[in-house]
Amino acid sequence: MENSLTPHEIALLNDRQLQIGNICHQWAAIEYHIALCIWSLLGIDYETGVILTGGLTMRPRVNMAVKLAVHLNAPKEAIDALTEIRKTLDGGLEDARNSAVHAVRFKDASNPASELVEMHRGRKKGRHPRTNAELRQLGTDIHAAGKTLKRRLDGAGIYNLPMRKPTAAMALKTSRTRSPPDSQPGS
Question: In whole angstroms, what separates CA 11 from the centre of its chain?
């Protein structure tokens, strides 16, 4: 089959792929910092943390982090940082990321410097053009949000909280009962 793309269009497509990869990388860093915050707040080790947060998407993960930080009386700076990242995500950053990563993409015949993307849910539902510069800016915005979150959580001392590995006795106790630790069945 004959390649219908010009060398310039191929370069633009390669840049688009690079920008989408950067967006994924920056997003994963935010997810990791939120997960690490949860693990630190609970004092759990890496393996247990992955079990707890590994299956969570961003929204439930950040909501859990905020609720735990408030419940466990984390430093105000940590609560504020988590609340701020949640507002940033809800303010359009998550929808923009989802569009960049999950949208169906079409070649824009009228403008090779952009593509047409189609989303079936979210704020940007429908088909609209998107340029490489917009993708690059989104990657920059996600990076800045993640860097700010990490700096603020670090400043609040979240990453310095002691972690502990669950003991065999804890594992045995939790495998035998679903009752809260201070109550006994039938009491």
Answer: 29
